[in-house]
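From the shared-data thread, chain only:
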Amino acid sequence: MENQVIEQLVLKGQVHIQIPEIQFSSVEHALKMLVRDFETVLGAKPELVTGADEEAELCIRIALEKDDIPKRSEAFGFRFHLNGKFPRMEIIGHDELGLVYGILAFSKKYLGIQPFWFWTDQSIAKLSEIKIPCHHYDAPAPKVRYRGWFVNDEVCLIGWKEPYPPSREVWEPVFEALLRSGGNMVIPGTDLPRDGIHYKLAAEMGLWVTHHHAEPLGAEMFLRAFPGRNASYQEAPELFESLWAEAIEEQKDMKVLWVLSFRGQGDAPFWHNDPSFDTSEKRGSMISKVIRKQYDMIGSAVHNPVYCVALYGEIAELYKGGYVELPEDVIKIWADNGYGKMVSRRHNNQNLRVGSLPTANDRGKDGLYYHVTFHDLQASNHLTMFPGSSNFLKQEIETAFAAGADDYLLINCGNIRPHVYFLDILRELWSEGSIDVSKHVIDFVSGYYASHHEELKELYLSYTEAAIQYGPHADDLAGDEYYHHPARQIIGHWLQGKSMQPDARLFWAVGDVPFNQQVKNFEDLLEQGMNKWEAWLQRCDEVLAKLVPDDLRRATDQLRFHGALHLSGCEGFYWLCRSYREYHEQHYPQAFVYASESMWSYKKGLDILKDAEHGKWDRFYQADWLTNIKSTIYNVDTVRRFLRIHGDSPDFFLWYKEFLMPETEKHIYLENTHRNPLSDDELAHLLKPYFSSQLGLSD
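Structure, as tokens:
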């Protein structure tokens, strides 16, 4: 009977699953997911049994198999047998992560649970039965050996739920999505309290843990451990080494990708704390010395350690210059510039764009640190999707793989929810090594939406076309921070009375020109941006009007949200620039109306965030501390108050009298009935129609 051909396995009702008697914590987590998935789809919890009789009516067996599976870590496959009269499917894995991936691949392939089901609010179809063709299957090896996420700038995750640091309730969906995407490593958060659950839970769910390049070995920051001391390795090597030894002891029994590095406090070059290192030779020599010390300390305490070095910022430049020596078995991690291009990042106005990939002469292993979201207080995307195209991302990653940087891929994933589409592209790239963008986007929308797939595909692909290109390079595309950080800098420069000279902080965006021309250069780009985002949103709304309610909600959160947030920021910044222009011409009431228009536009951004906080997402965007729309509104409100002093002060009645009071009242009114000053909003709303024709405002 064992050799009898089985064409199809039918699962319905309560499914009986045999599980290993000896459990890994990671497999226990995966089984909980599988039970939940079965109950969602078939309406009944499966029965999990251990050590069952081979003749029992078992539908699925989950087991470690070293012989009937490719002999590599994380391998898994499906097998089909007939024991007695009962057909059975086996999910077999070479090791614990092999079992986890096998379980989750079953869930995706046969139950329809997509990797980002939680983050997209996937509508999961209810079925009366599941029919599984009985074909043996072995999963191919992924392209990248170590692949995962850096959960960085995760303010939405921090503010979403009450406990701090974030609890299991926050982290489990993050790590589940990573595992469902085939990831196997994570940096779980940025500088969170060391007593948080994040590292422990990541290890518990089977993930390798690794470290931020500013926190080598995962050690505590020097100035936090030794406040008041000078953070100089040259002065106090024993203190640094005590922190590294403590970190090694804490993690030596975990699966760790040890990051060797030497940066200064607060993610800055170490010579900011130790200015005696004033040449590239001195700096490179010290970094090389520290990395070798860290390497030796780990090697003496950990069996077969895996080492990495983040070639980020100044370390990349020093390594490229030949000033840093690394042990040969260290994975060198090359970083993009934060905007998806594999070149050195911009530092304020300096943008050298030095290539950030290994050359043909480089020896050893290489990998990538890549951003689909970034926070740099200039033009990055934090709340919104990556503004580059999927073809741009494909080209950068596939080129990096071709250069040999394919041992490691760490993605800065931010707060997950806004970045699902591009995280899914990278899921396919780290698995397959290449991607057909057009096929992928159809698979993506088909997995999460019930209909109108071609139209949704067009929206995902055309999103990048609406982004403002503020510079000459393909990656010079504005994310949501572009409308806020430069705007607040303009306000500060303006109100501090510095407008007779340019704002040097803005040279990267609009050049070294007089301040009023800097503002005008922004204005011109923003006007183009408004037109493009309005057109994209119009197409978006036409498609959304055709969707069923569940898909409408999903498309609103995953597509329209991003375009609407861009448009509100674009409009807010544009009207701010127009306000400055009127102020420069000493047209103060008109400038006041424009500033009000700016503030009202920015406030739309808060409404957009709030609309996306339905159901389980309540409070998700309340900790918008990085783009910080509220701060921008506060700044623009300050501009309004400043402008009202110019001409409406001291009684804050003069503009009402000049522009709004009936002519018959102007010379006979009594102060006791007319001198209750209007609020800024009230006055602006009344003045707007008066100036509409000359200001180009719509009512």
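The first strand starts at residue 8 and ends at 11.
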